[in-house]
Amino acid sequence: MKNINTLIEEINGLKSELHDKDFLLTWEQTPEELERVLKTAAALKQMRNENIATNVFNNGLGISLFRDNSTRTRFSYASAINMLGLAQQDLDEGKSQIAHGETVRETANMISFCADAIGIRDDMYLGAGNAYMREVGEALDEGVKEGVLPHRPALINLQCDIDHPTQSMADLAWLEEHFGSLDQLKGKKIAMTWAYSPSYGKPLSVPQGIIGLMTRFGMDVTLAHPEGYDLIPEVVEQARINAAESGGSFTQVNSMAEAFEGADIVYPKSWAPYQVMERRTELLRANDHDA
């Protein structure tokens, strides 16, 4: 395990523009930026283990907006912002002026006077969640440009319809730790497969996040699912592009057993049929919430 000073030197040696942009999709970040996130997480983990203060902020708020239920992400986000010295404030849309018709632009700017970070989960409707996050970001950019806001809080995607970057990055961090380094992941086969679950129709963002991230680091990624359980075509194409650029591979099959053959890592996960998710969005846009 590397010591803290070594990690800090490596972090400083990686080119990054993360301080000037939001973290909404992992494939919008460069490999160096993703590596910098992993090394920063490793440094903070060691600092905590050695009882070294991790406060980047002396005060301030980290806002959370969960438009879908959450347990693990809700608590890990709260823990993370607390570790950095921020207090958490959950935005309950039903108890805010949003319930009285306040616009996204108004709400985003109002809460940002007091915030250094805003984490949003909006994952249930295809074409809606990530778009909402970008609408918030555009409202904040306008607020800064017009002199309404003195600073621009960072936006973090806590799961949308396209990606679940905090979970996939945590998975990648564990794989790096388990296999020894990011370089050791090159050529490793990971099987991302659909698996039955008796609970509700889960979003597509976890499998999409995995194929969109692991293909960035030279891994051989195999996606397996039954007919009708396709992922968003643009994300699948992005995985192919990532694999070609990183020297890895991306393969699609219909059989879990076939995907598991020769796999170093297996990742069974349930998600809803693509057509169901599309229909759910149509009903949302028609304001048919009962359906």
Strand content: 15-25%
Would you report the number of β strands? Answer: 8
Query: Can you identify the CATH class of the largest domain?
Result: Alpha Beta
CATH architectural arrangement of the largest domain: 3-Layer(aba) Sandwich
Quick take:
With 291 residues, the chain is of the alpha/beta class. The chain is 42% helix and 16% strand. The strands form two sheets. The protein has a four-stranded parallel beta sheet. A four-stranded parallel beta sheet has the order 7-6-5-8.
Write up this protein.
This protein folds into 2 domains: 4-160, Rossmann fold, CATH 3.40.50; 171-276, 3-Layer(aba) Sandwich (Rossmann fold). Helix 6 (165-179) packs across helix 7 (205-214). The radius of gyration is 20 Å and the shape is globular. With 291 residues, the protein is of the alpha/beta class. 42% of the residues lie in helices and 16% in strands. The model has no long low-confidence stretch (mean pLDDT 93). A 4-stranded parallel β-sheet has the order 2-1-3-4. A 4-stranded parallel β-sheet has the order 7-6-5-8.
